[in-house]
Every structure is written in structure tokens, then in C-alpha cells.
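Table S2 (text version). Query chain:
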Amino acid sequence: MDGEELLDSQNNVPKTNVKSRSSLRWPVLWMCSFVMFCSYYCYDNVSALFDQFKDAKNTGLSSTQVNALYSAYSCPNVVLPFFGGYIVDRYGVRRTLILFAFLLVVGQTVFALGSSMGGTGGFGVMIFGRFIYGLGGESLCVCAQTLLAEWFMGKEMALAMGINLSVSRAGSAVNDKTSIALYKGSSLPFVLWFGVMLLGTGFAAALCTAWLDKKVMEAEKPSATDAPDRVSVSQALKKSFASQSQSSFNDPTRRSVKGTSFVANMDQPEKLDADLPSISFKELTAELWTSFLSFKLCFWILCIGCIVVYATVLPFNNILSTFMSAKYYPDYISKYYYNDHGDCTEYADHKHSDLKDDASDYASVYLMIPFGISAGLSPFLGAFVDRLGMRTTLMLVSAAVLTCVHLFFGLAKGVDFTGKFAADTDSAIDVPWYRHPTVGVVFLGIAYSFYAAAIWPAVVYVVEEHQVGTAYGLITALQNFGLFLVPLVVGAVTESNPPCNPSKDTGGFLYAEWIFVAFGAFGVLIGIYLHLIPEGRRLNLKDPWQGLEPQHLPDEDSNPLSPVNSDVPAPKKAKQDDPAGDDDYASMA
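Corresponding C-alpha cell output:
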């Protein structure tokens, strides 16, 4: 028996395993979540200190170079999503958890070392450090979800996944405020070395988690009625991407989708740490290419939508701190002020740095809001989408809201640059409430959260069951390809600011906002198109499987999503000359 919620055929209750029956599952959850917290915290060091990286007294990077630090992280993840789950499968969750956590420590160490060096050589080292960090960051997410799927099989899995996701995103929110506070009391390298220490603590938590995992497995032998270990991998994939889609996956009258790629469909032993059959890189590439060619149009439309809509959120978050400073604190962020004769006069270095740091500190409050909202909403949005359906509509509305958010930030008037010498700073923004940046960042966080909750479960419903893992790998890789390119483009168009007035054209960011508006508008068109095709409209159903025509349903033996009942034989596939088969499908609807 396999599936996401395996049921005991006698008692019709979810099957468990040795780990999920242990009370140690809660310490494992919190340690695993802490590892993810550390990962997200250090990932967003760059956005919180965007202006500080550009400061000549620190690293003196350009806008393009600072954005390239994010592109370096995304670069390996254009390929890794295809193999991350396979690596966890082949080498076991304990080893890979330790490996990926260690890569984070190494990557952040190299990154911090590069910031201490400065200059062109230092920038190259920082890029290399972020690349190493990317090798571990995304794969660690897969590993953590797999681990939790094993420890919470048949018990509170949706709750565990929600807690893990919320704690992870809280790491980004905490970083936004903490990093600038640490910088004001120390230096840029210190902030990054603090991240190394934090990740070192996370690595220790990963070691403890692996030790507990091994201890529990050795202390109690598995029961013959336990769910097989192999199933936990598919559970992790679905729970990670599908936002706990309980309406489809947890219905006891259904089997759930096998969230595995073709690699996991090879003959494999039940134990995760057991040896697996070898497969050459040529065979792997050929199988991937065959899978890509077999995907339907609706899947590719979802891929494009994911790329363009995420491009309106994450690359914007990268520059949000410096954007907020330029638009709403121009007198603090400018290198110049108007002297008594009205001439543009450059601040003394220390004075300019103090004012700029205050502006970054005030802007960090708004930087926390989108991911803070996402962290709070994530545990509940999966259940919300399950009850409501309307996935295609939510994608359309979210893209429209994000487009309006960027129109708001681009066109709404900010704070006027006075050019007066600022002896003291104030965090208050003197604009009417309808022009206040809080309005924009709140809607940004809400729209982003709903879009993510709608699109990731939708993938399951537009691909064949044996392609789910490969499909998620592909859409994640394409998303990271977008996150590799867009920051470089945004950095290029925001490279130069007016010499005196940083608020003019929002400090050069108006052009970036038009790029985000274009991406958002493209996302709206994608949402409209999905409403025009049958596969897209079917995603609006509470249970999209019910929208399938009977003749399109595969055989029960080949499709674990087909409705079954342990006490009633599964209906046979209907034939054109078999009216009884039609009655069977009518009874299923």
C-alpha cells in the first residue's frame, strides 16, 4: 500500500511508523525548523544591507553587483531541483541533512571572507560563497520536508509542515531588522560572520536531528504493519509544494498522487539508506527530456505564470530596503544636501553613513512585512484553498493585485527631497495614509501568499501521476532561472541615481517598477488564458479530479489517484460500449 495517508485496512486509520509514534518528533520538528530559520536568515542578509554593500567604506559594490549576489544563489538551482530529491533518496535523509547544512556554513563563511577582503577580488569570493550557499539552500528544503514526512507520517503532518514553513519565513523577517541593527553597532563583515555563527548553531541542530533519527530507528524495530519508508519521500514532495492539499490527498476514499520523478520509479529498496540501482548521466538526461516533451500545455502555462509572478516579488524584495530609503527617506539617503547658497554639497563621509544607516533601519520595518504576513498565513492558506478551490481565479487576482502594488510604488508620490542638513532623523513618513508604503507592502505580502498557495497544488492536477516529481523539479528550476536573470536586469536599470535628489524618479527605481508592472501584467494575461481553457477552469473546482471526463481517467492499476474503497471493488475503466461503466463513473462524481 502506498499513498500519502496510508490506511490500516482493518481499522481504516492512517498508518504510522516508528518515528511518528515517538514523542521525540516534536524536538525534531523544532530543530529542523531552526535549521531552516538559519538558512532563510542568512539568505536575506543582502537585501537588508543593500545600501551598506554599496557603501565605499565597506565593499563598494554597484547595484548590479549586489543583485548578482542573489543571482549567484539561484544559478545552481536552475539544475539542482531535478536531482535534490534523488540525492536524498540515494544517500538517506540523515547524511544529506548534514551535508546541505554544512554547505550553508561553508558558503556563508566564504561570503563573509569576501566581504572582509573588499575590492574586485573580494566580490569574486562573495559570488563564489553565495554559489556554494545555493548548492545547499534549496536542497535543504527538500531534505527537511522529507525528514518531517517520515517523523509525522499519519500524525499532524499538515501542522508540522505549516510550522516548518512559518518558522523558515520568520528567519527572513527577523533578518530584515536584526542585520541593520547589528551593522550600526559593528560592521558589515561582523554581520555576515554572525550569520556564520548562527548557521554553525543550525549545523549542530542538524547533527542532533540526525542523531535522534538514528537513535529512534535503532531503539525500536519497525512493525510489519508500518507504512514503508519509501512513501515518506512522496509525502514530503507533496506537502512541500502542494500546501497540504487535504481535499485531494487525505480523503480516505482516494489514493494520493505519487510525488516522485522517473528516478524514484526505478526498482528501489524500501529503506532510504539502502543501495539504489545506478543510472548514467546520459540516461538521466534522456529520461528528463522525454518527460519534458510529454507535459501538456496547461503545465507550461503554469510554469510561465510562476516565473513572471515570482519575478514581481522576490527580486523586488531584494531592493526593497534601498528603494524605501530613496523614496521615503531621501534627505537621509542622499550623499548631498543644499548649502546656504543652494549648491549641492557632499556630506562628510561619517555623517552621510550615519544618516543612510538610519534610513536603512527605518526601511527594514517595511521590509519585514511581506514575509511576516507570509509566515503567518502559510499554515492556513492550504486549508483555505482546499475548501474554496478557485485556484485559477486566485492566481489571476493575485497577479492583478501585485501589478497594482507596483503601479502604486512607481507612481504614488513619496517624500519630497528638501536638501536640508539633517541633524537628527525620524522614522515617521509624512504622507497621507493612501500613499503610505505600508499599504503597498501589506498587499504585496497577501497577494504573494495566496499566489503560492494556489499555484503549487495546481501542478499536481495537470500532469500524470508518474511525472509529479519531475514537474515540480522543472517548475522550480525555471523559477530559479528567472530569479537568476531578473535581479541582474533590475540592478542594471537602477545603477545611477540623480546627483542630489535620490527621490527623483524614485531614485532610479521607477524603471525597475515598470519592469515589475510588465511581469505582473503578463501574469494577469496568464490567469485570463487559464480561464479560457478547460484544464485551467477545472483547477477552480474544489476537487479538480471530479472535473475529469470519464474517458480521460486512467486504469485503477496505473493511477493511484483513482477513487477506491477498501470494502468495495474499484470501478473498472469505462468502455464506449459498456453502459455499466458509465454508471460507475456517475456514482463516483
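Notes on Table S2: Confidence is low (pLDDT under 50) at residues 1-13, 230-276, 551-589. The first helix runs from residue 25 to 43.
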